[in-house]
Each structure stands twice: as structure tokens, then as C-alpha cells.
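Please, structure for the following, as C-alpha cells.
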Amino acid sequence: MIKKSIKYIFISSILSSSIFAIEITNNATVINIAGKQRMYSQRLIKDYAMIGMGNTFGNPKEDLKTTINSFSDGLNSLNSYVKDEKIKKKIKETNDFWEGLKKELSQNPNKEKALKLREDTDKLFKLSNEITNMLSKNKNKNIINISGKQRMLSQKMASLYMFKVWNIEGDTKFENSLKETMKEFKSNQEILENFEKNTDEINKNLKNVKRNFKFFEMMSKSNSKFTPSLIYKKSNDILKKMNETTKLYVNLKGGK
């Protein structure tokens, strides 16, 4: 139990580190920060579902508060760095939408509001993704962008499953959404594995992620329901490794 507690305190520290405290000095760093916003959009709804189900594994109530603050910090950080007027306009649009959503997420989870909140966090992802792509010179071909997106997909896979366990969406909608998300994750994984500038450390992380992703593949083919705690853990394992990997790509010379 002590080891598990330490592990999830570490995962929480990944998220609670204020983005605003990070000095943005180059395009690679700003893409990493913008990309992390996409991950937060899906982690928000994952935590919301965990709290709604009364599951305290990983302390989702505290994690939700931390993620809300981190998303706000991210917007402030991006707005301070960005000079391009079109991107600034998109950041303002995102912030205006975020202010209303933040209030809803801060209230006690309500099963009747959950589906609408899922739609809203998906919109938050789309806005964040547009900002990331606008900052990415080569858009989806940018390796930092692709690696960062894997963090988001790990949380989206988990949040979709939480909604199935919470009986929010029909099985058909869940299965289609999960299938599409897993397909994108697998495709991105192959691109990352084949990137010619990968270091030994990056390749080691990617192998670890591939092993954990097999769990989601197994889960999607099973008719039985897995426990939310296990889904929460596996998604965080992938998040941790992809967060490390994305930082390694940021530090790579010419990692674009």
C-alpha cells in the first residue's frame, strides 16, 4: 500500500507541477505544454466519473482540483509566450469556454450531467488540439506533437471505459469511440517506434507503453467489466512514460 501511495503521489506531481512555472524558451517546449492541455481535457472527465462512482483509488477528487488548476496555468503560460494574433485569439476562445466548464466540473458529480460534460471536455480537447497544431510547424508530423497526443489518448481510453462502468453511454457508442481511440494510439505508437532519432531511453519507454497498451486491447475484446481502479492505474502508467518520452523528444536536437 505504501509503494502504491508513493507511486500515485509521483503521478500526481507530474500533473500538479505548475506549467506556468516553466520558462518557455523555444517552439519545442511550447508544443509540449500545449499538447499537455489536450491530456488534461480527458483526465478531467476521467476523474469526474471516478468521483461520481464513489471510487477513491488514486484520490480522483484531489486530482480533479489539481488538473483544473493545471489547465488554467497552461492557458496563462501559452498566452504569455504566444505573439501570433490568430493563436492568441484561439487561446482566448478556449479560455472563455473553459471558464464555464470549470465551474461545472467543480460541482459534485451528477450522473444526469455527465454526458453533456463529456461533450464539453471533448470540445475542450478540440480547441486545445487546434492550438497545438497551430504552434506545430509541421502539424501532425511533428514528433513532439504525436508523442504528446499519446498522453491524451491514454486518458481518453480510460475515461470512455469509466463511462461504460458508470452506465452513462450505450455499449455501441462506447465500443466505436474506444475502437477509434485505440486505432489512433496504435498508429501513433508505430510512428514513434520508427522515428530515426530515438535514443535507447526513448525506445525503452516506448516498449513499456506498448506492454501496457496490450491491456487495453485485451480489455476491448472482453465481455466482462474491468474494475475502474485497474483502468485508472494502467492509463496512468502509460501517461507517466509518455510524459517522460515527450520531454525527451523536446530535448532532442532537431526533434521535429
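The two ends are 41 Å apart (CA to CA). Confidence is low (pLDDT under 50) at residues 1-10, 12-21.
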